[in-house]
Structure formats: structure tokens, C-alpha cells
Amino acid sequence: MTPLVLVHGFMGGSAQWAPQLPDLADHFNVIAIDLPGFGQNAHLEPIETIGGFADWVISDLRAKDVDRYHLLGHSMGGMVVQEMMSRDANSVDRLILYATGATGVLPGRFETIDESKRRAEIDGARATARRISATWFLDEQLAQAYEHCADIAEKSSPGAIAAGLDAMQAWSGIEFLPKIRSKTLVIWGDGDRTYPWQQTQHLWQTIPAARLAVVPGCAHAVHLEKPRLFNDLVLDFLQ
């Protein structure tokens, strides 16, 4: 059974995949990562580059004796898994890029990275966690999964928030996209406030073996807004 590795996004954590585990665990050995500075690894030293995150995940997988796997990355985690592909492509069977892009400066985002940095310094980690979590949902704070998502985001250390924003801002994976050879699924919610259609379209049309799934009536957290549909898309692609 090929393991399925899940890499969360900025201010996320492995606990965000709770709606996926019952369905996916019936078919795969699911490995949900907590990146350093976030989730259950909030106590670890933050990493300041997307490549550094990729190296950390690969090292963690090797420590678990995992040398062949499917790979799914959400948001900033989608950047991380693109870097993993550039380093460990022979180990990756299928790739899922979800609510992500290949440009770290995030053109069209609900606010610029610089604005997020400024507001995080002024507002503090907890307020930043709750404010940014709201943007993930079409119904913002009224979404059913908002509180759960915000609780996980609040675990992010202040250093990890700053480091994560710096890592995204400094990263670009555009040149590597044509070199991705794994079969790839690109998933995007049509109300995403973080990654506009142009980023999604670029992934879909540039990666040679990419397929596209656009989910209507969702924002940046399809896996929490429409978990059953998200799970079905993942399982259909991987099987």
C-alpha cells in the first residue's frame, strides 16, 4: 500500500485533515505532516525557506522508512511539495496540488504578504491566526469548520508566522513546473481568496500530466467546506 503524505499550509497542522482520515485511511497509510513551528510541531525551530521545509519533510519520511509515496500539498504546503518534487521526484508516485500556486508572492491574494507581516506584528499571533483562518472559508467566521481551523492556526508560534511569510515571499517554482513528470491533480475552490484562477490555470496548463478539478462554492479550504467531495476527488485520482 503506497503511503499518502499530506502537507498542510501556512498556520495549519495535521489536525486539519481530520475529515479526510476516515475515508483515506481505508485505502492508504496516511502520513499527515506537522511542519516545524506549526500544529503539533509548534515547539520546533521555524524554517525560513520553502526548500528548507521540503528537506525537513523528506528527512522525516526517510526516518519513517518511507521511500515511495503519493504526495498532497495544500496552500504553502503545495509550494513545499513542489520543492519536494525537485529533490525527490523518483520517490513520488502521484502528486496533488491543492489551493496553491507556483509564485510565492501570491498576486491577487486577499492582502499582500507585506501587509500580513505588518498586521501580524501589530495584532499578535492569536488575532492573526483567527483573521487569516476566516479568509479560508466562503462564509468566513460563520463556516462550520472555522473554529476548528482557527484553533489549529492559534498553535503557530510567532516566529513561525514570520518565517512562513518570508518563505513564501522569497519562493518561486515556475521554472520547475514543466519538469514535473508525475501524474498530477490540481484542485481549486472557485471562491479562493488566496490563490486566484491565474495561478491554478498556470499549474494545470504547464505541468505536463496535470488534470484539473474546480470545486464550486468553496474558498481556500475545500477539504473542510466540502470534505466528502474532496475525498472522492482524491480517491478517484489516486486509484
From TrEMBL:
Q: Where is the AB hydrolase-1 domain?
A: 3-227
Q: Which SUPFAM superfamilies match?
A: alpha/beta-Hydrolases (SSF53474)
For this protein, the record's InterPro entries field holds: AB_hydrolase_1, AB_hydrolase_fold, AB_hydrolase_sf, Epox_hydrolase-like
Look up the domain of life of the source: Bacteria
Please give one Gene Ontology molecular function term for this protein: catalytic activity
The name on file for this protein is Pimeloyl-ACP methyl ester carboxylesterase
State the organism named in the record.
Answer: Litoreibacter meonggei
